[in-house]
Amino acid sequence: MSYPHLLAPLDLGFTRLANRVLMGSMHTGLEDGRRHFTALAAYFAERARGGVGLMVTGGFAPNIAGWTKPFAGTLATTAAARRHREVTQAVHAEGGRIALQILHTGRYGYHPFIVAPSRIKSPITPFTPFELSARGIERQIRAFVRCAQLAREAGYDGAEIMGSEGYLINQFLVTHTNRRTDEWGGSYENRMRFAIEVVRRTRAAVGPDFILIYRLSMLDLIPDGSSWPEAVQLAKAVTAAGATIINTGIGWHEARVPTIATSVPRAAFAWVTQKMRRELRAAGLTIPLVTSNRINTPEVAEQVLADGCADLVSLARPLLADAEFVNKARAGRAQDINTCIACNQACLDHAFKNELATCLVNPRAARETQIVIRATPQRRRYAVVGAGPAGLAAATTLAERGHAVTLYEASPQIGGQFNMAKRIPGKEEFHETLRYFGRRIEATGVELKLGTRVSAEQLIEVRPDAVIVATGVRPRDPKIPGQDAPQVLSYVDVLLHGKPVGERVLIVGAGGIGFDVAEFLATPAGHSPTLSLPEWLAEWGVADPAQVRGGVVRPQPAAAARRVTLLQRKSGKLGRNLGKTTGWIHRAALAMKEVEMVGGVNYERITPQGLWVTYGEARRDGQLIECDTIVLCAGQEPLRELHAPLQAAGLAVHLIGGAHEAAELDAKRAIDQGVRLAATL
Predict the structure, then answer these.
(1) Among residues 167, 382, 491, 603, which one is catalytic?
(2) What is the mean pLDDT of the chain?
(3) Whether the predicted model's global pTM rises above the 0.90 cut
């Protein structure tokens, strides 16, 4: 086998897993309504068919107090357990295994009934929790146990007890959130009692032949987090209490360190699991450990296992991106895997906005019953103009269905705007998406014509059955007097053509591209957080938890390469429309590089010395901001000149991607439009 460690079976004593891939818990929103269970069953069945050894559902609360939000997914009754059988039966029909995650949010819940060990409000919810009484604690423990029993009744192969990421069990463990003085607080033995009682009583209730995973926070990344000896003590105790597997949790949701975004190096926290594994093996404990976070290729997963960091790897978003990940690895087709780029735009961002999650690079994820790719009953000829994300998705999906597709691209390479995105420090994963689409073009037989700026007349002469216009966008002209000066560049000049930029830079426009250009220009040449784990750990202040409680210290970012100022017309916080779960990371990264951010700016005129600006509607306080280079990132407009003449000639024409809408560059929308259109033509 190409990946002998990854694809090796794992004997758990009472059962055997086919390989070392655990599909980590990923909340999709399908868990939160009974009308979604058919879609949830299809979603997991496709991944079971793809060869995953063991899957874990998104979190289900054991009671109302544990809800993530009002009426969130809950497993507390036999009637609910019966509904879950649709999911477990679908998975078992494909030869898969699945465990239900029991998630009690504690003070993280977004509803007024939340409870916690102490009455301490979380920074990520507006509600203050009720402090649990001793009787209330007993009720919560019984709810965990009952939920696990119901999971077994529903046909699940196991349950994962969520004890990390700052949820209720984690809240009992640390003084940051547990100020109790009774038998559930004070000493660490008392603080970990809740976790141990949950595991011990659950094991007694479900019997010995039920997989019980405990998700243990090995690195809290908060100042008052667990010490390393405490984490080791807990791991030993949950093993003794009956856990089958220990899964790694990294960081609380309120921690100010990114843990799964694109800029986080691959397998950035495998060393933490390895550290715990060595502790347990030294104590004679052979319980399997799972490592997690940013493991997105079979090569990375294989190396992590070969190095002895863990016994299994947890892949959540990578299995959103490609349900066939394991099968492709087993068949020696790793280059055909649609790699997760950790953008968070369609998965976590959706989840935190109460939308159904999916995947930017695979819009079928969690939409398997909506977007069905079927072979065409009648082969047709299609022309796709533009090989950016939208055009690539449309062309390859059409060809996969059996249509004849010609893909025209004016530039000498595929990718469109992704060719700029991949140059941003921390966004190197975009290379993987272009590699995947390149392979798809070959495999599906798309006729690719690079360096070909096809005209409407040429298309009319060819007369395909339909033309898909995916020609993308062009930079919007901000019409600032003096912008034709030599020191004024567009973001395309900087990112795509590599034109030289001075030491003092003004960036006009603070949308996603403005932030990307600021990151690109402020980062020293050759410094890439994705490629250097030690630099990244220092930059974000991640330390060895054996040396620092919680594993977090003062960040030590590299010095900025330039003095960069980011400007926007709107007043208020810059980057307000960035990703729900990643915007704070981009703002923090620029703050560490001392990028100045200024809103409410009017751009009056450009002179050889810099940019004259005023502020607010009154256009007050005029001043010259001196600089060496001005970079225009003032938005985009659709590029769709082909549309009208093709329609006038009577051809069927479809607009997708930036050519359809260019309010903000949106690869998620572009790929989704391409796949959905191609699935229905």
Answers:
(1) 167
(2) 95
(3) yes
